[in-house]
C-alpha cells in the first residue's frame, strides 16, 4: 500500500482479539467515563464462544439457516486460497485457532416454506387455517410417524458452494405420502444436508464427543431433534443458545 501511495497512517493498528483499544472519554448512556473498550470482534466467532466450552464440542445451530461448527486442532492453518467449491469454510478464531464451519442456506426456512406451501394449498381448496396451527399439526403428524423412506434434498435455496443444486424428492412410494411421512423426511433432509457438508466421519476424526444444539428451529421442533439424534452418533445437549453479545462479553471478561 505504501508503494501505491496509500495513506497508511489512516489505517488502524492490528491487535489481538480481546485486547483493549482504549477507554471511553465521557459518560455515554449510563456507561461511565474511563470504561475499557475492546477491539471489535467477529459476530460469528463470538456466537460460537458463547456456548463452546470444550474443544471436543461441535455446535449445531438451526434457526432460519443452519450451521455446524467444530474447532480445528491447535496449529491448523487453512489453505492460502479458499476453495469456492468446498462446503466447509475456515474462520479465524481466538488464540490463533480456526473454526471449520458448514454454513447451510437451508434450515428453518425450509420448514417455513413447507408450512407456507401447505397453507396456500389449503387456501386454494377453499379453507383458511393459520400457519401456526399448520406447524403444530405437521409436527404432531410426524411424531406419530416414526420413520419415512422418502428422501428429501431440501436445498431449495441452493448452497454457497453449489448454488445450482436445488431441492428434490426421491424414493416416493404411494404408501408414504402422508403429512407425517413428508414432514419427517423434510426434517431428516435438513440434517442430512448439513452432514453432507461436514460429515460424521470428519467430526469423529476431529475428536468431537458432544453436539451442542441451539437455535429456534431446534427448540420448536421435536421431530428435528429426533433426527439430529438419529443421524449424529454423539450425545446432544440442547439449550446452548448462541448469542454474539454474550460471547463478546465473555471474551472481554476472560481476557481482561
From TrEMBL:
Keywords recorded for this protein, A-Z: Kinase, Transferase
Alphabetized Gene3D superfamilies for the sequence: 3.30.420.40
InterPro entries for this protein: ATPase_NBD
The family this protein is said to belong to: Belongs to the FGGY kinase family.
Organism this protein belongs to: Bambusicola thoracicus
GO annotations of cellular component type: cytosol
GO process terms (BP): cellular response to lipopolysaccharide; glycerol metabolic process
Keyword Mitochondrion attributed: no
Record's protein name: Sedoheptulokinase
Record GO terms (molecular function): sedoheptulokinase activity
PANTHER family: SEDOHEPTULOKINASE (PTHR10196:SF67), SUGAR KINASE (PTHR10196)
Keyword Transferase: yes
Residue spans crossing the bilayer: none
